[in-house]
């Protein structure tokens, strides 16, 4: 029997990120995957700003950004005319160091994560399948089948990162409520030429049709997504690229020079009933699947992994009670439900058919989008939603207090546009206290006694613009979210917070 602290089933981005964050915190892991190696097709493309912020914790962000294409804008096309251009740079430059959507094919992305994990001393065990598991009071006994045959692994925790057809979820019996859209869609990696092959995102809306183009280099290599003609689906034959609806593609002025990969799929929207059952946990597609609208899927799985990793490390090291893990289910399931609802509405709007739907999609929506994007607060809100910087946990048992415009459970705002880069210290993956202004001596003494790093910055215009309060204390979680915001900077409030939750922050 092999012993480990966390057994991770599935070596996609979610499982790899979970392993990296756990290893960084000194946790022993095994990660297994039934495939022979990382994926060879691009699949998920978009890496959102919030994911890149989290990647700074392990010095991954610069390498990932350097390998991808910074996409500065979304262009909306209707019947061959570009009707709106929504700039990420304008919307996000005061909010994040990464005011863009990074287009970085998943196969390249996975290879970087695998290499960093190997450098940390952990290899993905390929061709190794989780067959089943049993839970006891002290952990999980998992049955594996690998190249050498069947074996057993004892683990304190099992993380199911094994995708939409998760063995872990099926055995837990949590359910997977939701449904499937009627339409069949295609995804293709193509080489294109034409006016819209300019390294930006393009969405073409037509009567009864749509196409989305995501460039991932400046030389015409791109991902193309759209709908298949219904009559071809009804024939039941194997579909090819020539069977897709072409009107929206033509409206982008594209010439398809080569199709390197083509696949069709049905889109699902489902959520598991529980993300934690005993010592087994569900993350990524094993816990939730939804439409590809907005490029949220992979980023959500990565967010699951970072949220869970520090909590597992705390419990395994005796720094928090096991009940801390329950907050993973509370926080991430609430976000997943909201995300499914949001992407469902967006996707339903894009694929809706009928005269009225066509009129709204091709006439009203581009005008509204262009006008709304010209209003700074709306532009910032739209960027927060797309980039996942707006993810917050207002109903979490770990969220408390407010100071300025910042509440417990929200991401620590960034002050680096004109002020100090207050996100730089977050690479520690540790509890820390941030104060912008004057630090009370008794607060400094509390931090020293508790072994919590205190980061102080002089009050500045950027601090005020970010919504922070002068002289307030912000207790920041290891995953860079504000746990407690106390407007008075009172150490008694911080002490009550950690004692009531049984947390030893250092």
Automatic annotation (TrEMBL):
<feature type="domain" description="FAD-binding">
    <location>
        <begin position="3"/>
        <end position="342"/>
    </location>
</feature>
<dbReference type="InterPro" id="IPR036188">
    <property type="entry name" value="FAD/NAD-bd_sf"/>
</dbReference>
<dbReference type="GO" id="GO:0004497">
    <property type="term" value="F:monooxygenase activity"/>
</dbReference>
<dbReference type="InterPro" id="IPR050641">
    <property type="entry name" value="RIFMO-like"/>
</dbReference>
<keyword id="KW-0503">Monooxygenase</keyword>
<dbReference type="InterPro" id="IPR002938">
    <property type="entry name" value="FAD-bd"/>
</dbReference>
<keyword id="KW-0560">Oxidoreductase</keyword>
<dbReference type="Pfam" id="PF01494">
    <property type="entry name" value="FAD_binding_3"/>
</dbReference>
<keyword id="KW-0285">Flavoprotein</keyword>
<protein>
    <submittedName>
        <fullName>FAD-dependent monooxygenase</fullName>
    </submittedName>
</protein>
<keyword id="KW-0274">FAD</keyword>
């Amino acid at each position: 029997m092999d012993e480990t602290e966390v057994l991770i089933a599935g070596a996609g981005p979610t499982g790899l990120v979970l392993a990296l964050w756990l290893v960084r915190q000194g946790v022993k892991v095994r990660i297994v995957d039934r495939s022979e190696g990382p994926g060879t097709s691009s699949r998920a493309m978009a890496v959102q700003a919030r994911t890149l912020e989290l990647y700074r914790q392990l010095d991954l962000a610069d390498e990932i950004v350097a390998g991808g294409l910074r996409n500065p804008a979304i262009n909306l096309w209707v019947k061959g005319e570009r009707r709106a251009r929504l700039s990420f740079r304008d919307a996000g430059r005061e909010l994040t160091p990464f005011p863009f959507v990074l287009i970085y094919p998943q196969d390249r992305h996975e290879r970087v994560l695998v290499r960093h994990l190997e450098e940390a001393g952990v290899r993905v065990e390929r061709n190794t399948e989780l067959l089943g598991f049993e839970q006891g009071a002290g952990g999980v006994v998992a049955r594996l089948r690998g190249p050498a045959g069947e074996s057993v692994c004892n683990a304190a925790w099992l993380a199911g990162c094994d995708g939409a057809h998760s063995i872990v979820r099926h055995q837990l019996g949590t359910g997977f409520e939701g449904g499937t859209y009627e339409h069949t869609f295609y995804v293709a990696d193509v080489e294109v030429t034409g006016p819209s092959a300019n390294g930006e995102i393009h969405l073409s809306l037509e009567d009864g049709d749509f196409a989305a183009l995501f460039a991932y280099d400046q030389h015409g290599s791109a991902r193309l997504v759209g709908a298949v003609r219904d009559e071809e689906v009804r024939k039941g034959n194997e579909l090819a690229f020539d069977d897709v609806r072409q009107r929206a593609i033509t409206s982008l002025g594209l010439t398809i020079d080569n199709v390197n990969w083509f696949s069709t799929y049905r889109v699902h929207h489902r959520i598991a009933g529980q993300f934690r059952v005993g010592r087994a946990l569900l993350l990524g597609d094993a816990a939730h699947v939804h439409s590809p609208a907005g490029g949220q899927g992979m980023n959500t799985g990565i967010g699951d992994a970072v949220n869970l990793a520090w909590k597992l490390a705390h419990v395994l090291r005796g720094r928090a009670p096991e009940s801390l893990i329950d907050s993973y289910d509370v926080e991430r399931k609430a976000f997943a439900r909201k995300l499914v609802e949001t992407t469902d509405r967006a996707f339903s709007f894009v694929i809706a058919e009928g005269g009225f739907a066509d009129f709204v999609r091709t006439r009203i929506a581009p005008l509204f989008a262009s006008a709304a994007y010209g209003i700074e607060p709306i532009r910032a809100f739209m960027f927060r939603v797309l980039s996942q910087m707006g993810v917050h946990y207002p109903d979490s048992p770990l969220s408390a207090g407010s100071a300025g415009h910042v509440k417990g459970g929200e991401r620590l705002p960034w002050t680096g546009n004109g002020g100090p880069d207050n996100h730089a210290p977050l690479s520690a993956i540790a509890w820390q206290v941030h104060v912008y202004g004057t630090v009370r001596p008794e607060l400094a003494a509390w931090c020293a006694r508790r072994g919590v790093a205190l980061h102080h910055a002089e009050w500045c215009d950027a601090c005020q613009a970010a919504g922070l309060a002068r002289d307030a204390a912000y207790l920041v979680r290891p995953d860079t979210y504000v746990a407690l915001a106390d407007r008075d900077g009172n150490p008694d409030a911080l002490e009550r917070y950690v004692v009531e939750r049984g947390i030893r922050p250092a």
